[in-house]
Amino acid sequence: MDNYVYIVAGLPELTSGFENTGFNYAAVKESIMELLSEKDQQLVELMEGGFNEDTLNAEFYDKAAKSKNRFIREYFDFDGRLRNMKVNYLAKRLGKQGDNYIVELPEADFEEAKQITDILADADFVDREQRMDDLKWEKASDIARMDYFNMNAILAFLVKAKTVQRWAELDAAKGQEMFHKLVAEVRGTFEGVNGPSALRQAQGPSGASALEKVEGA
Length: 217
Prior knowledge:
Helices cover 70% and strands 0% of the residues. It is mainly α. The chain has one domain. It is globular.
């Protein structure tokens, strides 16, 4: 049986537990992975390939494009197009050719193109990176907007959690801001979608919450 409802129900408590200790993506991921099936664990590992510059290549994007999971396909199609725009922008500024670093993707309209162009034109590096990460955050939300208790919701959460970790390491104030945004989102999602009957479903027959399942794993 899938544990999606249990996991999502426990995210508000799981994330807010780092309020005083500092956010720890690895610990969050480990807690979630313990409750996932082997198939879903493989999806998380595939997604994490997109966080690693060493594995972020044409082979990775091809594998993501062929994934049976909709979030993986759509998010990394967006990510690949964004990275191609960054490559072209930097190559143009340096007076070089960026063709060797472009990832081949199918011809398609890219609705975020203008927004990314505007962000790349921002002369402030830190502001540019923050705006780019905010755009990635919103894209993850858009893809999983109607996914409440399934793997897409969990993958979207992990994308955002990874972003929180990145900024916690780069800029403590920004990291704290994004941490609170993540906590507010997961609380709002669960409370907004669920009434008493759904809460009972999330707790299961034993009445145990997802966080209790995580702590007892």
